[in-house]
Design a protein that fits this description.
Helix content is about 30%, strand content about 25%. The protein has about 260 residues and is α/β, with parallel strands linked by helices. Bound molecules: adenosine-5'-diphosphate and magnesium ion.
């Protein structure tokens, strides 16, 4: 069920379709429409290979859709813009830069002076539990710590929209659990002013734990199969009846 967008969202994805091949023989995304709202954590869930990373790269302005359009506050996204940041599945840290230099990369386009950049990056690393690791290199960090640097870099410039591509899927489950809980805490703290989060994932429990709404995608060529409101208070109990029932409901949507 693809719903038309009203244009009132922070991000509006409107009839986006995509082919990688120029001959347009292998459709990856059929037609996808949805909106992200103010103060919303939105997840997009779908099977592996259905085009989630592709969709997120389109929203980020890194690639152009073959059909349809994406807008940020009503303006079409045709290239990356400072209001939208990206968190990568494999962290994408630069190994030749120290951890604080990696966070400062997120401030490259900011017009603040280098002293303020340093202060901000230091404060963020501290917030993310990485005090003492400022001047070491990513290779000394565990996966969870690397992703904290990746997230700190993404939010350093105070973006309005945070796009996350399976940000926990390269981590072991224990580390992922801790980081998920921290993310919920960070994104809701007044220190961070992200208006809208869009996370893609193939992990149903993760989507139900973190999201306000969940967009369920079909197999490739993908389209929107269902949109679920979560409506449970944080922190969510993975063993509660409500939680388990929504998880089951989404598994059913995915397997139909
Ligand atoms: N650069 C590319 N060139 C050609 N095909 C690609 C490229 N990137 C991804 N694909 C194909 O597009 C489909 C969707 O990929 P992707 O967006 O990575 O899916 P997901 O993130 O949901 O696993 C897959 O079949 C994948 O093989
Ligand atoms: Mg992917």
């Amino acid at each position: 069920m693809a719903t038309a967008t009203s244009g009132a969202g922070i991000i509006s994805v409107d009839g986006v379709g995509f082919y990688y091949d120029p001959k347009r023989e292998f459709k990856v995304i059929d037609s996808i429409s949805f909106e992200s709202r103010q103060k919303e954590f939105l997840s997009v869930i779908g099977p592996s290979g259905c085009g989630k990373s592709t969709l997120l790269r389109i929203v980020a302005g890194l690639i152009r859709p073959s059909a349809g359009s994406v807008t940020y506050m009503g303006n079409e996204i045709t290239e990356p813009i400072p209001e939208i940041s990206f968190v990568f599945q494999d962290f994408a840290l630069l190994p030749w830069l120290t951890n604080i230099e990696n966070v400062k990369m997120g401030l490259n386009l900011s017009r603040i002076d280098s002293y303020s950049k340093e202060l901000r990056a230091r404060k963020l690393l501290k917030e993310f539990g990485l005090e003492g690791f400022e001047d070491s290199y990513p290779n000394v960090l565990s996966g969870g710590m690397k992703q904290r640097v990746g997230i700190a870099r993404a939010i350093a410039s105070n973006p309005k929209v945070l796009l996350m591509d399976e940000p926990f899927s390269s981590l072991d489950e224990l580390t992922a659990n801790t980081l998920r809980a921290d993310i919920v805490y960070f994104l809701r703290s007044k220190y961070i002013r992200v208006s809208s989060v869009i996370m893609v994932t193939h992990n149903v429990e993760e989507a139900v734990e973190l999201s306000d709404r969940i967009i369920v995608l079909s197999d490739k060529p993908s389209r929107v199969k269902a949109i679920k409101d979560v409506g449970m208070k944080y922190p969510r109990d993975r063993h509660s009846k409500e939680f388990l029932s929504l998880v089951e409901d989404i598994y059913t949507e995915l397997s139909e």
